[in-house]
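Example 3.2
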Amino acid sequence: MSALLHAPSAAPVAPGPIDPAGPAAANAAAASFASLTARLDYLSPVDLEQVRQAYRYADEAHLGQLRNSGEPYITHPIAVAAQCADWKLDAQALMAALLHDALEDCGISKAELIERFGSPVAELVDGLTKLDKLQFDTREESQAESFRKMLLAMARDVRVILIKLADRSHNMRTLSDVPRSKWTRIASETLEIYAPIAYRLGLNQTYRELQELSFQHLRPWRHNVLSKALERARSRRRDLIGKVHKEVEAAFETAGMPIRIAGREKTLYSIYRKMDEKHLSFAQITDMYGFRIIVPTLADCYTALGTLHQLYKPVPGKFKDHIAIPKVNGYQSLHTTLVGPSGVNVEFQIRTEAMHVVAESGVAAHWLYKANEPDSPMTARLGAQWLQSLMDIQNETRDAAEFWDHVKVDLFPEAVYVFTPKSKIISLPRGATVVDFAYAIHSDIGDRTMAARINGEQVPLRTELKNGDVVEVVTSSVSAPNPAWLSFVRTGRARSKIRHHLKTLAQTESEGLGEKLLLQALRAEGIDRFPTDDDSTRAGIWDKLLRFTGNRSRSELLMDIGLGKRIASIVAKRMATLLAESGEKPDAVLLSRERFVTQESAGHAPVTLDGSENASVQYAICCRPIPGDAIVGYLGRGEGLVVHTADCAIARKLHHKDSERFIGVEWSDEPTRAFEAAVVVTVNNGKGVLARVASALASAEADITHIDMGQEAALETIDLRFVVAVRDRVHLADVLRALKRTPSVLRARRGSTSV
């Protein structure tokens, strides 16, 4: 990125395409340790000698190897170490930077490195080494495993990721020397993976440079066009920016506040992305230029803001306080956009020197402060506060490709970070709910979730999580996933787990119902049990039956019967025929008894219902049957068993068209739950009438599950339609009597249709 003003802290210039290799003398100079020594003045003589030994070892290991540019290969490790030296990393990290390709490219073992340089350096190098010796099905899986190993190593030592980012930065600076066919893959990987990591770690200079270089190689034509446009705009506005600089300096000199002013220019990639996302032309980008005001103390940040607002008018809605509310990577500054001379908008960022170091160097500020101010309190907190979100990713999956997807999604800032009651950080996509959190911990916890508390307060399961929430999930052994959860969960993991559970449950229940229906149908044919493969005379009966029905397994056939996709009586007749062919005759006593029963019940022996059925049995909302009602069962195609009241108009129509799909059903003597019934209450409209009706329902122990007041609020009499949960017809009669005794109620009756 080009610097607008030549100030010490101005952003570095983004390197353009690398020229072909220079003269041999230049190559030799770049490959020498002397080019690195000037940056290592913060090391002790002992540490400097250790780094020198690592250089000699690496130089010998890479002897004869050349880069694509024709330079000696050792120039790459030296460049990586130089970047680490700019971050003031310690001697062990610099040694690992010089040796980072030794295991991978030179056949040197980890044991040799341990013996020569010690275990800490060898562990750093090992964390950076790709897993080339293992075989993978795809390139992506190889990348995922390599990246996972890097993150695992980083979880033990943050220096691994810093060295890796320095390595990627130098590779991107020299990408023009690589065959063009590789540009897209390497640049895309950098833009999708490494630039976001740099952002998350607060390495803003590295983040911007990686974005810029990726853009330059992914879209060279667009980069070139924008570069020329920016150069023209820069020359046109040089006088304007100079005027702003002088006026700001004068204003702070008058106020008596010592400041440092640095120029800031938007990167080409940022300009391109803004143009693309907001469909703007280059001329419509108004925030290409800006200034950073570096002040002595935190309080001076807000004083400086007042001084600037007195000098130029602020643009409404363009102020952000990242000091009070830092970004996820620790970045702190005040941002304000002002209307400068000639009506041009200019952005100002106000920060202290400490904030500036963190803003530019992020997690590397830990070593910068350690080198410059060993006793500073910053060293205690900067070490790994950006890492926690990354360290937990590797615990979420053991599948390489899935892990790779998690990393690509979760490294972007559109995430929320919440805590378990034991203070473990869980990273989730923005918009994730309590249920997503439960499944992120463990699928069993998700399946058994009953309630939740956020920051100690009871909340609904659909509550969206916010950064910093402490989430506690309450589980129960009798709880199970609810189909309604699918409407609000955000993560693919939660969605797939819920669907899998519901599908398995539905299949199990449908199979059980199908087995019951088929056995009843067989009894009507004079057969009291299923044929078994143990009996030689009945061997192969199931195989022949499956060939007849076209099902792949016995479970699938029974499931189809339970779902109403096949008629149990037809399957039973076929099985009876196959048994007769094998020599088995129906039981005459059973046959006559069952035929007598079927004449009485117009179908099979009845299926008993107690309310414990889930997916396999549905209670029709057109008539809402409750225990005590006369009922009939309809085996809908693919819907399972649908229960209607015997006098339901819709059930009568279905019976007229599809009578063979009706089976006998009856209520259990002891239902296990309450059932919903529709109630219509006609009332004199007036103040407090709804409260009185609701109170009457509560006193009759009927829970309200739905209420509809219609569009008749202005009329004298209106109908209130309720869906209430009752135990049976007797309980419903008690509810209706309680309603009729309520003041303002004219009539109360059971509804015949859904509310």
